[in-house]
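User: Please run a holo structure prediction.
Assistant: Happy to. Please share the sequence and the ligand.
User: Here you go; the ligand is uracil.
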Amino acid sequence: MKLRLDKYLADMGCGTRSQVKKEISRGSVLVNGRPARRPEEKIDIESDCVEFCGRGVTYAEYEYYMLNKPAGVVSATEDPREQTVLELITGSQRNDLFPVGRLDKDTEGLLLITNDGQLAHRLLSPKRHVDKVYTAVVRGRADEEDVRRFREGLDIGDEKPALPAQLRILSAGEYSETEVTIHEGRFHQVKRMFQAVGKEVVFLKRLRMGALTLDPGLAPGEYRKLTEEELRSLKTEEC
Ligand code: URA
């Protein structure tokens, strides 16, 4: 793929298009060892070697991060008041990253952050029914009747009932720990499903989305790049 030099540098966080243009005119940008003179010069991202102010700049078209979202942070690209999930991704220079879907402010767990719109679209498409698995702690004793009602598809106040979902009870008591698998991504879906069976969610954490499983080594707030294998599975999974 070929790109204009000023776009290449701006995409890789070297500055705005006008800042990098200034550096090009100052001779601080080398392409294959020679000072570049024109911002519109075409760069082959596979074979050309670009240096900006003495440092090599490799072009990464897409970036993919797995974040263990902590509670208290919003799933947005920017927000005037709240800390956003993108502010936690400090190791990227890209300015076009976004979270794939949303977790509520108080929900923790797996969130994919990328700039790959096509993959995001595939994962979020309502037609594809990508599985999402959550741990939910609820107030009250979860029982087999709840399991049955989740399996049949609950009325959660929308035009259509929620699709059948799987509820596993891990422990039951004054508070119950459960695992829920849903196949859609409606607003507050898990909380509203429990509300429909008379229970309040007091803790919610996403463990899996399609082929992608939260790395148990990531503490809340930590992130890492996806491995090649994870990316391959995400891109090729059957839904
Ligand atoms: N369901 C919810 O209720 N909240 C989330 O954050 C995710 C799924």
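The chain has six helices and 15 strands.
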